[in-house]
Automatic annotation (TrEMBL):
GO terms for molecular function: lactate racemase activity. Residues 282-424 form the Lactate racemase C-terminal domain. InterPro entries: LarA-like, LarA-like_C, LarA-like_N, LarA_C, Ni_dep_LarA. This is Nickel-dependent lactate racemase. It comes from Clostridium diolis. Residues 8-205 form the LarA-like N-terminal domain.
Length: 430
């Protein structure tokens, strides 16, 4: 027997499995960093991909809009690289008064002055004001036309009316667009709510009752209309320069890419794959995935990344066991609660999602849909009554989850994949 210990909240969950049943323990790839964060940032800025250096693109008297991620992405350590970007602009002749910092809020709330300081760092925040994009304030936006998907593109005027747009952020796996970063600074970052909703609704198949689109998933941009639509919106404003970081398993900047927002992002995607894209030999009958403990499993909403990644390691209709303490229940966002609590069938959920699409509704829908297509067992402290209208099974221990898995598995000797850091590792079948 093999003892397994996986993170759960601020503790661990233990169980025993037969060693011969274990296929793989899916962990991030070994990654060794030989340079400091400052060296990584400088090297990317001074050696941009398919682009001149930023200082050679801009000129004195031109207005430059730097788009930054909001406080929910402070793990990107923007204070480490934003001042270097400003240095490049100043070297190119751009004065401070011609530089605008615009926070890509998407649908997120406005931020406080203290949060702006966290993002820019103490010195920069004294020199510059940060403007928070408001997706509901259509008077602050410019209509630029429609994409081939029919998405009306309305973007923040401060960016549209600038001479140059510089987009910043980080590249990680994203469950709708494949990878974050790059064009996401434009859509959803500085887009109207109507634009965002129309774009994100492309995650559903055409035709009522057809559910989610398989090609819309982490680590994929091929035939992914959400990605294609975002690229079309970004092309309408043609960002002059991109700077994106890639984070390592230790939470520090492991790499950075700069330059052309299309080709530099492609290089960044490859770097993410080299760290968090884990090749697996085969899918298993059962996958056991931990979100990685607190705060990644603080509520059901935050646990979506774990579920999406875990799906890639299990056979069709197999058993997915997700370890997520969910000390704060489903989460505070009203839409995900409505999607899970207010319906008892998938057609009504899908109808509501199509009529008024939001990301949080989609997250709730995805959990429920996965419960229909797989045996989804949640090891959690969440109140089971909250999920009574779904097919998600809630238990308190990993041992209970395994017993249910074995008792209901057609294969009496089921194979198992383990994912100790399910929120960040993406299994890829080779």
């Amino acid at each position: 027997m093999k003892e397994i210990n996986m993170k759960y909240g601020r503790d661990k969950m233990r169980a025993f499995i037969e060693e011969e049943n274990l296929l793989e323990i899916i962990e991030s790839n070994d990654f060794k960093k030989s340079k400091t964060e400052d060296e990584i940032i400088a090297e990317a800025l001074y050696n941009p991909i398919d682009s001149e250096r930023l200082k050679d693109i801009v000129h004195e008297g031109e207005k430059v809009c730097i788009i930054i991620s909001d406080i929910t992405r402070s793990w990107q350590k923007p204070y480490k690289f934003l001042y270097k970007i400003v240095e490049e602009l100043n070297e190119g002749g751009v004065k401070d008064e011609d530089i605008i910092f615009l926070s890509a809020q998407g649908t997120h709330r406005k931020q406080t002055r203290e949060e702006h300081e966290i993002l820019l760092g103490e010195k920069l925040s004294k020199r510059f004001e940060v403007y928070d994009h408001d997706c509901f304030d259509e008077e602050s936006m410019t209509y630029l036309g429609e994409t081939s998907y029919g998405t009306p593109v309305m973007l923040n005027k401060k960016a549209v009316e600038s001479d140059h747009i510089v987009i910043t952020g980080a590249i990680v796996y994203h469950f709708l667009v494949g990878w974050s970063g790059g064009k996401k600074s434009i859509l959803p970052g500085i887009a109207s709510f109507k634009t965002i909703s129309a774009n994100h609704s492309l995650s559903l198949n055409d035709g009522f009752g057809s559910g989610t689109r398989e090609s819309v998933c982490s680590g994929n941009i091929i035939e992914n209309p959400v990605h294609d639509d975002m690229m079309q919106a970004a092309a309408m404003v043609k960002p002059a320069f991109m700077f994106n970081v890639v984070m390592g398993p230790d939470g520090n900047i492991a790499g950075a890419v700069a330059g052309d927002y299309i080709t530099a992002h492609e290089a960044g995607r490859k770097l993410v794959d080299s760290i968090d894209g884990v090749n697996i030999r085969s899918k298993s009958d059962i996958v056991i995935a931990s979100a990685g403990g607190a705060p990644k499993d603080i509520n059901l909403y935050q646990s979506i990344k774990t579920l999406i990644n875990a799906k890639e390691a299990v056979v069709e209709g197999g058993t997915i066991i997700v370890l997520a303490e969910c000390s704060e229940g489903i989460g505070e966002i009203k839409d995900i609660n409505d999607m899970i609590l207010n319906f008892d069938n998938m057609l009504d959920r899908e109808r509501d999602l199509r009529e008024n699409y939001t990301i949080s509704k989609y997250v709730g829908y995805f959990f429920c849909e996965t419960g229909e297509k797989y045996r989804l067992i949640l090891v959690s402290e969440i109140d089971p009554d909250l999920l009574k209208n779904t097919k998600i099974i809630v238990v308190r221990t990993l041992e209970e989850a395994l017993k249910i898995s074995y008792d209901n598995n057609q294969n009496k000797n089921p194979t198992i994949n383990l994912m100790p850091h399910g929120a960040t590792t993406l299994p890829k079948l080779v």
